[in-house]
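thought: fold this chain, then report.
action: predict
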Amino acid sequence: MASKFSHASRLTRIALVAGVALGVPLAAPALGQAASPQVQGQISLADLAERVMPAVVNIAAVTTSETRGRTLPQLPQLGPDTPFGDLFEEFFNRRGQGGQQGERQAPQQRRSQSAGSGFVIDPSGIVVTNNHVIGDANEITVVFGDGLRLKAEVVGKDTKVDLAVLRVKHDKPLPFVKFGDSDKMRIGDPVMAIGNPFGLGGSVSSGIVSARNRDINQGPYDTYIQTDAAINKGNSGGPLFNMAGEVIGINTAILSPTGGSVGIGFAVPSSLAMNVVDQLKEFGETRRGWLGVRIQNVDEATAEALGLGTARGALVAGVDDKGPAKPAGLEIGDVIVKFDGKDVKDSRDLPRIVAATPVGKDVPMQVMRKGKEVTKTVKLGRLEDGEKVQQASANNKPAEAAKPAVTSALGLELSAQSEELRKRYSIKDGLKGVVITKVDSNSNAADKRILVGELVVEVGQEAVNSPEDVTKRLDALKKEGKKSALLLVSNAQGEVRFVAVSMN
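observation:
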């Protein structure tokens, strides 16, 4: 974040660090170059820093906004001869509320400044930084290490990945750096960061890759590189280099109880950033693919219930009637294990893969359906900003007549739908399934957060409409040797999810 930078998360804080300065443990020499000299047993990064530093810039962003005036309060009508008249007038004037009684102050301009980091990726003047560094700034100035100051214009920005592309103009080619392949970075590899922490431009720090594919709950495409390099206020948008001088990450945030660096910093990996940057350069916006499904993760119990062997893939819990997945033949209960030739290891992988796939492309998908692998082809749509994936439309046929039967299974008390139950739990018209009227607090179902008033729609991927249907289906699963029953559970509004409940 730019100077305005804190972001609370749990007991510590995920802080956006407008410009990030990461540090690299003094480590291996730049690839293709002679080994750097050793200093007190450590390898110097001086040659590498000297080579790439001219392309790293400080970014000053100024935002001017108009503040509305306030209607001034009426002064007490004390009369011309009272000694308190002057006192009241002085009091209101001192608080900046002088003027005529009942008068509205004129609008005033408010200026706020923030500072961050960035880097040049093209000699023509293309600069990459974090979106939160520039925000809605009216003026953006890019400052080079030699003192050169250039006004910048915004080419495009992406709030979901927190990236922005700027353009500056100069009569000479500008120093620049290139992106590297973040996918080749391993935990323990040395990295170096250069940025503008606390306004101290040209600061170099070093560290290692502490972890990969970190999800810090900042957005739908979280897959951060974690590093122990020092990252502080003002470093957001700065580059994280490998030892070849290639940018493998854009420093963005830190985890800290104090707001300062404690050795846990996060950078957007170049493998994600490059596609976003290319689109921002070409279109001025990011054009992401859209599949039109609601998904959930597959845990071990769910994998066993589905016959997957191991926990993998993204479980389809909803299909948008107007989305690309519907005509492609995707169904609730499908598990997407491969998309466009890329393995979907867990549900977090799928949104990133889909988003990075060109809009309009015919994409093959490998799907596990009731224990068998099938291939589907989908023509990707475009995910528009603010677009919410719709829930699968409910069947509007009225529910079957109420049955008085009540059955206990899996720690649940189940009843057929009735008018009284629909009113009691505010169940949306048209929803099918068996109503849960009680949940044993000591059951596995309670542990899985199944609630009273929800409906069991499917058991073992087969629809159920009565408590008897549930028990019959559970008996069949037990005969098949299943240890868990995969339930499709719906809330009263029709939003569904899969829950694997132990049958032991």
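thought: worth noting. The domain at 289-383 is CATH 2.30.42.10 (Pdz3 Domain).
final: tokens above.
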